[in-house]
## 1
Amino acid sequence: MIRRTKRARLILCVSIGSLSLLLLLVVLFVHTQCLRPSISYYRILEDSIRNHHPDDRSKYILLYTNFFGNRNWNLQAETVGPDFFRSIQCPVTDCVLTNNRELLASISDYDALLFHIAEAWTYSLFEKVPKIRSPRQIYIAANMESPAHTKHLLEGDHDFFNWTMTYRLDSDIIWNYNNFVDIESGDIVGPAERPQWRTGWEDYYNETLYELALGKTKMAVQFVSHCGAHSRRDELVQEIQRLMEVDVYGKCGTLECPRGSPRCAQMLTGEYRFYFAFENSLCRDYITEKMYNSMESYIIPVVFGGADYAKFAPPRSYVDVQQFGTVRKLVDYLDYLATNPREYIKYFWWKEHYRISGDQPFCQLCRKLHEIGARERTQYYRNIKQWWFDGSCQKDAKIKF
């Protein structure tokens, strides 16, 4: 009986021991196969954060080509540094802009080279591009003009440019004329692919603006000196003039008003109801200063271009010609607004929520050069000509004239 008891205890101990060993093996398995990798990954991340030292070295940007004949791209000096970037309120300021190729020991020491592609490069045939290039350097194609006015030949620039700096919203650095800034938050809302605009025009009313609208006596005005544009805007204006009054100032019209004259700005608010901001090319995202300049006054811009204006300006702040099938329908709507001042002034609702601010592409460039992606990832535009030209512009307008 005693032997059986001892044997039972022995079996029990062995069983418990085996069970404990099995449990230990399970714990080890779970730890090594499930928990340990996670712990290791977290440790790797923590080590990376701990050992990461931001690249706070100044970034040198060389203005390699002219900007419409200007060597320093209209900057105040040949070389500008952090003080310049602070003066335009950039979030990152540790950059240097220069057109001096000898500021650094070698051309390959510059972090980025900026090439203006709107005009033909005028350097010697033996020195159109640098003879040496560091793999870490960023070559940037910059342009504010439409493809219709791009004079630099892009055929030979395969795998040459890393970044683009243009008005197009799919550029690496967006270089547009102006931004709409939310007054309350200070955020830039547009241009953007999917801007989140405020609403509120439906019930908008302002007694002062109502009286202003009643005092306007002229229908529409246009300032234009580039005649025979690719968009055929001259022909469109002529068709509109058959149905309503349009005063055209500049080389393409019969009236004159000196550029920068206070009189020109005053008559936009005090005399005219509509400002024709017609672009020279019908190209994607191509909106020049015409629309923005008119919106500084109390006059409704009538826009004509190839852009989706909803990405650039608040709703009910402009009249888009391309939304009308015929010139007659457009003129009928303008007549409706002209004779209904309560509806007319609703086009100024946005001024209580947004302000127009100049764009600072060099701020974006400086910040992007300091981002880790600029150091660790390299990209090239395999066919920059195709990216810039294919599908970018349209020959025929949506409105018939």
## 2
Amino acid sequence: MVRKLHGDSVKAQIVEEVVQESSQAVFAETQLRPAMQPQIVVREYDAGGDLEFTMEFEVLPEIAVGEIEGIVLEKLMVAQDEGAVEETLRRIADQQKRFEAAEGRVAEAGDAVLIDFVGKIDGDAFEGGTGKDVQLVLGSGQFIPGFEDQLIGVKAGDERAVGVNFPDDYQVAYLKGRPAVFDVTVKEVRTAAAVELDDALAKNLGLESLEQLKEFISTDLGRQHEALTRTYMKRKLLDHLHATHDFPVPDAMVEAEFAQIWQQLERETVDNPEERATMENERDEYRAIAVRRVRLGLLLSQIGQANGVDVTPQEMAQLIWQEAQRYPAKQRQQVVEFFQQNAAASAQLRAPLYEEKVVDFILGKANISERAVSLEALQAAIDSEDAAPPPVEDAKPAQGPQEEGRGCSRCGGGHGR
């Protein structure tokens, strides 16, 4: 009875376990490293007899790592600018502005209006085009281009028909490029009360003093500048590694990587035929990006393994804890247990940190010179690397069986272009 009820499922489980164990034994014995999960076909199996199966897979290439000592790189440094701190402080103050109703005032740029509106196309109201008691700051760019300009000069009690054209790249497909008329009723015109740059502003933000707020802003700007500096230097390092290492990469890994990139591009251009056509014309260039990603991923993994770079259990526990914080409190323990019990998910979480540690290892051996530049110059230097077609930084390329990861299939990184 047991055999009748459960025999097939038990047989499948046993076959899977035997195939897994024996295939791993083959890899260990032959020192072959599969690039992707092997394709396995069971050819013969009889109860009480032998199990025979075939495996088909591409192997990872032998990688000769070039010299990584003394790679010449330039670190572009942004000097701290007191003017940037003051500008950020004033922007924060503007965000804290409170608007108060002003009797009899004619609305000017910078004022706010409290409005009701109904949007119509061809005389019919359309879904999502109605609002009540909406506060709109004139000149903020919050609404469709041209909408706010037509409310300059209104006063409380006015009614106005505002004609606009939805942009061609508007996020709602059926509204793209279409003309519309909004029937607007102005309920109040409001002016902004001045916000003083003082301790009271800081306390409203949970800090003790204006000086502490300035220190916080300065520190935050410094972190932003350092992140941009690292982005530029890391990209230059990856460019150097790619230019000095040329080895064949497994076709299956490239195809899987390219498929991930292409799927993301298709999602991003689903409502834009012109961008889709451009994308199709640049297919070969995106495939070249996939080749670069795979090659750099394999190379970084090889460098890291050869030099003992690893993610410690403490670092892994910290990553899992940080990931768990993204979920409601009652789910966090389940998230922790999920990563502790799921090796593939854990490796995916580990991969970005592993790449950063390998990059840090190489940078620690590099010959780095420093040059002070403006923030604009640093940003321009980064942007200049993004010639069309741009890298697909948010793609999650395919994952091989050895180092599953977010990003490149070998170490999880995007590796620039």
## 3
Amino acid sequence: MAAPGSLCGPLYSCLFEYDTPRIVSIKSRKVGLMNRLVQLAILAYVIGWVFVWEKSYQETDSVVSSVTAKVKGVAMTNSSELGPRIWDVADYVIPPQGENSVFVMTNMIITLNQTQGLCPELPDQTTLCQNDTGCKKGYVGTHSNGVQTGKCRVYKPPNSAVKTCEIFAWCPVEDDDKIPTPAFLQDAVNFTLLVKNNIWYPKFNFTKRNILPNINKTYLKSCQYNAQTDPFCPIFRLGDMVEAAAQDFQDMAVEGGVMGLQINWDCDLDKPASRCVPKYTFRRIDNKDSAHTVAPGFNFRFAKYYQTAGVDSRTLIKAYGIRFDIMVFGKAGKFDIIPTMINVGSGLALFGVATVLCDVIVLYCMKKRYYYREKKYKYVEDYELGANTPYGSQSGTPERCGVR
């Protein structure tokens, strides 16, 4: 155990010492060049990255946005169930108005003339039967189309040997095992989508819309978006959007999917307002991975109801299609003195890194480090105490910390 007296010297030196910086001019090409290179790198970072690239001299604000969309296009089909038929916007856009999104039906399974009554259920492991004992009255399964009556019936009379449980439901029940291929509305590839987007930066009270001031009605009726030739037209061909996301439209139309239309409003408000323009990009949102094909695409059901001779009837449609989600993001910046001064001060403080780095190399890495350390540090005794200091004689060297 150390004697109490041996602790007094270090404790005294820690309590009653004062360090003051000492300027030492080192005439060394290596150290001087390294110091200037570090300072140059810091200066390039502050000017090039912080101020030019990141524009840290600006105050920023996030975008506030509203979006409306309108689809145009007509398709004709000729099927055994429906015969020749024209499909317009009221038929394939469901619902007519969405919030920042629009759904376009491209394929469907249609069940005509359904009425409420008794009919055999679709065959599966829970509905197949040989006689009435295989059916449970009142049973409703997770995927049932109706409520079982307890009877067993031939599924497709008169020649089918398959029997299923009878149900009370909308009959005949929908059979969605086979999806139409190719897609029912193949012509949807040529439908167009008009997007109206209004943005607002509240901090700067700046508003704009994606239909730019130089766009008139005549131009709007004839233009179509093209990234190279017409990047500001707000009318998009569905096939072009899907193709821009590296997808095949006809393949996607069979089972449906979700597409993202991204509108980027990054604006430098120190420049003229005319240079604040939207940038459009496209990508597929739902992952269509060939290695994992469980429940792909996008679909839902809806029905059209009517009465025939006082009997409620309906046409059930399982709709497959592409949902276009319109996503708006961006930020605006404008010069402000406060962030400018903060970043200037931070940049000046970084110049201290050059001094620290050079000190470390000079005092610990160079061959003449002991010589430089002797020149940098100077030990001074208390003038009033003289030789009576705890360190010993005036010419002695302190055991603890030196005074710079």
## 4
Amino acid sequence: MKLALKLVAVVIVALIIGAGSALLFIRGAGLGGDVAVGPWQTSLVIGSSQADPYTRAQIAVAGLLALNRAETVYFTASHDDAGDKLRSDCTYKMAGSDPPARWWSVTLYGADHYLVPNPLDRYSYGGDTVAREADGSFVIVVGPEETNGNWIPTGGRTGDTFSLTLRLYNPEPEAARDPSGVVLPHIAKEACRT
């Protein structure tokens, strides 16, 4: 009887540790991947039948309602060009030109993978809503202080982090096949609150 109770206790502890570590991995990993383009990351298996169970679970948590790879390529940045984590109390300049897709959008998400509340209800820009520079490129300021032009609020709380998700809808075939060759916007830190 004593041996059976010990076995049951060991199994329960193993299940708790296994489920807990899997949950921490799934919730903490976000939508990074094995392909990097500057600060942006993607995975060749996201949205495909080759995705392993952990990747599918990550998408279910962090990429709610994600489309399959044939329709959309997702890039996520949780760091700037210098490799520093994106912080809500810092201001960043994201500059680039249209990526190779029929339509694109970039959206800011908090560490919990949800939109960050802000009084303007502004969470993203897309190819048809972003204000352009004279040469057709764009600059989006991401930070706690309101600015003129394209601005996505971060919330500004010290210690909070966020990520940016860039979606390429109906990407050009080469971009879908080899996303490592796509030219994506730079993310440069401008300043942080002290």
